[in-house]
User: Fold this.
Amino acid sequence: MPSVFLFLFPALVGAMVVSFFLGKTRALGSAKEHPARLHSLPGYSGYYLAIWTTMPALIVLLAYVFFGPALVAMQVRSGLPPETLALPVEKLELFMRNARALAFGGAASQTSAALTDAARHFTAAARTLNMAVIVLVAGLAIGGFAMARRQIAADFRARNKVERFVYALLLACSIIAVLTTLGIILSLLTESLRFFAQVNIIDFIFGLKWSPQTALRADQIGQSGSFGAIPLFAGTFLITLIAMAVAVPVGIYAAIYLSEYARPRARQIIKPVLEVLAGIPTVVYGFFALLTIGPFIRQLAESIGLGAQTQSALSAGLVMGIMIIPFVSSLSDDVINAVPQALRDGSYAMGATQSETVRNIILPAALPGIMGAVMLAISRAIGETMIVVMAAGQSANLTANPLQPVTTVTVQIVTLLTGDQEFDSAKTLAAFALGLVLFVVTLLLNIFALQVVNKYRERYD
Amino acid sequence: MTEPLPKDTRSTRRIIAASLPRRYRAEQRFRAYGQGAIVLAVLALGLLLVSITAQGFSAFTIYRFSLPMTVTQKLVDPKGTNDPKVIAKGKYRRLIQNTLRRTFPDVKARKDVRALFALSTSLNAVDLRNRIVKNPALIGTTITYTAPVSDDLDLYLKGLVTPRRQLTAKGDLRVRSAPNGQVNLETQDQSLATAYHLVQSAWQAEAAKDKVRAGKLRQLATTGDPRRAPHNTAEAARLETRAAAREKAAQSARLTLSATDPSVFVRSQNSIIKITALGANTAVGKVFVQDQTAPVQTIKDWSVLYLKRPEKTRRINDRQIAWGEALLQRQQVKKVFNSIFFTHADSREPERAGIAGAMVGSLLTLLATMLAAVPVGIFAAIYLEEFAPKNRFTGFIEVNINNLAAVPSIIFGLLGLAVFLNVFHMPRSAPLVGGLVLALMTLPVVIIAARAAIKAVPPSIREAALGIGASKMQTVFHHVLPLAAPGIMTGTIIGLARALGETAPLLMIGMVAFIAQIPRSITAPSTAMPVQIYLWASSAERAWEARTAAAIIVLIGLMIALNLAAVLLRHKFERRW
Amino acid sequence: MKLKKTVFGGILTATLALSASALARDTIHIVGSSTVYPFSTAVAENFGAKTDFPVPVVESTGSGGGMKLFCAGIGENTPDITNASRRMKASEWKTCHDNGVTQIVEVKIGFDGIVIANASAAPVFSLSLKQVFLALAANVPAADDNCVLKPNPYKKWSDIDPALPDEKIEVYGPPPTSGTRDAFVEIAMEKGAKSVSCLKDLRGAKIGSETYEKLTAILPDSLKKNSEGKPVAGKKMFKHIAHNLREDGAWIDAGENDNAIVQTLEKTPSAIGVFGFSFLDQSGDQIKGAVVDGKEPSFDNIASGDYPISRDLFFYVKKQHVGLVPGIADYVAEFTSDEAWGDYGYLADKGLIPLPEDVREEDGAAARALTVMTTSP
Assistant:
């Protein structure tokens, strides 16, 4: 299918270039020795012509690339004999695959009269569609070219038209962000709904046992498959708690020191150093937690007589905390800096020491903003994947002991989806349900936190 | 008219004065907390970088064979056809094996032959084959065989397998042949005695450990589960007997060494002897490597090699170590820069694995990300900053973008899996899909950075342009955008650097397969650097550890380079309005 | 007019041809067992280096998962080869045939032992298969001669036998997609259950016989009846009891990545893992195998059949893809070359226990000729 595209696309690009120059020449020609008489610069006429020549055709072409195969299949399906249509879904799919293979030179696992017939339909439908697309694209290009070319004249408002097109393009680009969100919600929701058709949503959210492996064949005896996500939520919560216990005090004190105490020179050095922490890939932190912090914590715990494992909530949480320090500190720094100088001066005038000013005046003033920063950091910690995948373990322990391995929502998403390609089992779909939970929780945290941060950042401006 | 001073001014002052030291102390404390926080964060960064550099440094060098090899026609091109197709099917693995056997001709036992062959992975035959196919004139000549040694030997030679002590001797060593291929050693030199004491104390330490455990078990037998008491007592007794036996053995004049004891070698210019029984002045050993044989020898220049880790607990056995030491001594194994690491893709054999495949994969992925995210991001930013009317819809888009920037990256992976792979049936493991997923993730970062840069262009520029008759669109594209470009670029580079380090979304779209080839196109299966790091980090063999850390060093280096570029760009073009 | 038609027809035909070739995959796609994965990747790498074909993509999905993908049909989107650490099941054969995968080449590549291992820092475990069964079955009989089933009460190894260590039973094992899991329950658990005398009797008992009635009188109804409410034969009931693993946390499905199990074990000295011998062979410095029924899991013991839990390894080729995807026959040839699976081959270095030489010669020739399986396994 895409070869029509491969052939038409370069043609369209060529047409675009050619029509640009043709448009430009025509505009200049229409001005007859007096270019100043033109309403718009001649280039705009060129753009205008190029847009009309290629854009409608390009849209058709792209639609063809994305929907062509489905269209052909639909066409063929409508022509199938009723006994074939009566086949079960997977058989019908196999039939279609074989027919397509027969038609376009792939490997067919069966042949039959019905298949050959369908294959003929396939060839015919594809031919028709390709023909139609070629005609349509050529027609649109030529039609667009002719129409636009006729419009080009000395007083033609080419610039306004082109600018309107560019405006639409800009708008479309900014809507892509919205489409992404929509895509996330839709894809998570549809797969999750399929999951909840198999597993009760109450059991999922409130169940205490996570053991997603189920029997594969009818003659195999596997685990019963329970999808209670509480151990995952608990593990996520525990690790987040540890990470925050590290990141919040260190981050806030660092921010206070940087904004209130540090000399400009020190600030200039320390800030980028902290930012390096934020720039290190998370997989590196995971490696660090697994090979350096984990064994260290285990030895430490064993030396004071505690049982510990290398993969533990503590090592993952600690390292995640380190990762999040710059996140908390730079956001808090912004918030603290936004507190107006007048408040400080007032406090100093009353004879307060610097620390008293910070504690009694600045922090209360900045508190909502700092809270927002912390919430953003929490959402970051909840969604963090690689550190926990590498350092926290896989076993769904329901424990509050930070020296035990725990598992988190993100770890399970990764475990359920790597290497697995089937999309009919509850096991794979569970990953999407977990993703949905993750998305909703982080979204709520983000929306709330961003509002708070923005509000307080601006209040003193 | 001044108001009369309050009567208790002095007392207020006194109260304040009295509280001052406390307040100053609090001030000092508070300040120290702040400094402590900074120091903690910087220390964490330092520890991370130091530990990774320390672990990864060894992977940048590798030990390599440099053996004379005769390319026998019989094995490569038996009929002398000189046809590249025939030469390509030659028995190169056999050729390497023959070369190794010729280097150590006394190796006879089947088990030992296998161990010897394991020093060079069979995949090395491929390089040899390519070399000879390219240059058939080499057939029949003697060439220098260069290939990396096995990862286990490499680790040993780098000193990463076992603590190793070399005791250089000064006195003479008399070697006498004994039956069963054994030799008797005799010397007055202290080095043998030192080794004897080392083994002795190792045994005593073991016995002490057993005793401690036995004591614990005895206690448990009286206080713990009565059902287990007899078993615990029995176990304790067993440990005590073992400890006693060990202690007694440690006192004997000659210590018999087994595979669970430290290994001791005696090494001279042309032979390596494994010690099987060790006394203070005498020893019995087996000759592992020998160049020339004589029934009685007196050796002057020799040393004792003491390896703390017992043979049984390491992947490389004593014979392989002896061969490795001999090769190193004969300069048939040399330490060189590990260029394989930068030119090869992934491999099952650590010594042949490299990051070139992952680097190209990352590059292709980043290319796709850039092509998709940068134009869209900039256009969106222009719209929002310059054209968007202040209405609800614009507000909605803005909230949306800010939220998207904080969505966990793994969610984008799920989106890619559900939409790109399952709906559009794009190829699994392809940089194209990875790039698109990362583009969606990077988009908000680019938009936010571009908006900030556009906002920073002062209104006077716009007003001047509008004033001389430019349209709004012309103002933006001809005047604002060029001035905002450095800022946009800085933001974009930082966004791309983040994408370069991202792993989780790529796991979702199947970029975690084992791919032993440098990807050739944007739709070919490939991995990316962070994914390669993840894959190696979860591999069992020890040799991957250093390679993982080395790959991290390269990745961090790349990211620092990107960030540095951003900083330089900002400095060079930054304009204060 | 005629000319136009020819030109258009030409373009369209070219388009169709192009589209077929644009879709065609030129890289062999291999899925399946994580036990065979190290061997398969080693062969793939050698194959890619020695030939001009691209290096095959190997994914570790577990034997069962691989079979499911393999049997899903014919065409670009289905794998060409699947590895298995057990023989194909009759049910899988049927699925394959129903989906048009009718020409399957079976290649037996060697032996493998299933080892029960723990961290090398921990003491050596010595277990009997009966103890393995008692530690891991979901339901166990109250005593040797009393088949009243009860949910597995053992929390610690020492609860089963005071001679065993006083540690929590915590076993990391393969999930149901894994062939190692199938082989483990079919060999180790069944043998272990057989050594419980009353369960052994149950296995031979016919429905309605005196023994059957006596033994099943105490079994729960849920086991005795199938989904249609009919009584279940003793053999089937036995199988259910033997194959049903614990779900109370003592047995942990550890995913398809055997490396991950090795790492977990190294870090958790009290835990035990179940996986293929090759992983023990490759990670001998981190973990060590438990002695089972008095036999150590060693190369020689497994090759000779003395070690009680050993099985065969296979891979299956979709012959219908030969010609569709280039290089499949050459891959098979590489795998069955002496350099690969021979006594001194590179697969032996990776921990594969080679077949006897005569078997290798015969099977290798059949495999290289791509001889198709004719009967259901």
Q: What stands out?
A: The mean pLDDT of chain B is 88. The first strand of chain B starts at residue 61 and ends at 65.
